[in-house]
# Entry
Amino acid sequence: MYTKYIKINDGKISIRWAENRYSPDGRSVYHYRIKIPFWPAHVCEDLKSGCTRNPTLSEGLEHLLSFLGAAGESFGHYYRMNKDQSDPDSNVNLFPIEISEWAYLNSDDITMEQMDLETKINARNRK
# Structure
């Protein structure tokens, strides 16, 4: 089974198609793994494609990085405001708090990887 990997500083992110590739609504489901130092790997299959035809793993990874960026940004807000992170509607809770903190600390690198993927996806779609 093909898996796409990226390394962001001391973390590693991988994504592949989920065992049950399609959700009941017809969207593709991704299986992803986020491994950061000193914390067990976070493995999940809660990421779905949009409604586009023939989604790719690169698109799934770009979306995952977007969610990581949002979680990191929200963690930074809570950190600066010295707030409790238990708000269930906050993006800080998209991932375990340790991953949101890692995303905050690596936000620039996450953004650069996301922009690089987006540029490649857009170039491929223009062909």
